[in-house]
Amino acid sequence: xTETTVAIRPPGRSFRTLAVITGLAVALAAGVLIxxxxxxxxxxxxxxxxxxxxxxxxxxxQHGHELNFFARYRYNDDLAESxxxxxxxxxxxxxxxxxxxxxxxxxxxxxxxxNLCNELKAGFPITAITCELQTPGVDVRGNRYQxxxxxxxxTIGDIEPLAVPGxxxxxxxxxxxx
Length: 178
What we know:
Layout: H1 13-38, E1 49-58, E2 66-75, H2 87-100, H3 109-123, E3 126-135, E4 150-156
Antiparallel strand pairs: 1-2, 2-3, 3-4
């Protein structure tokens, strides 16, 4: 019978080196993972956006509801400074549609808002838009009372949807102190 003896050597220099290299590799991997998780994504390009609101607009839809409209949009990436649309032109489109629009075929606020948002997106150099159409509760003759503010939110493209709580009003001007 033959005996084989295996000698187990105590950890030496090669084991320590391997442990140090493994530790450094783990630390490097952890640093990369943590960096990616806290960097907020890989696209750090600046984005230009604009927002406007229209308050207390009287609409002929649904027995003359008073409306608030909010829009936030992101400009096309390659838009030159001289090509930025004046928000007043977008505002004019909204006011015209909400005060002169024919809502007989589809009076739902969701549809009105979607159509407005689509028209603004198609008509101006913007890559993404979110629109909120907001109306207060009213007492409509023959119908049940519609309590509280309610809104339709429509979003197209890569932009956070609006979520403006109602009512939103312009604060009264400050009174000058003598």
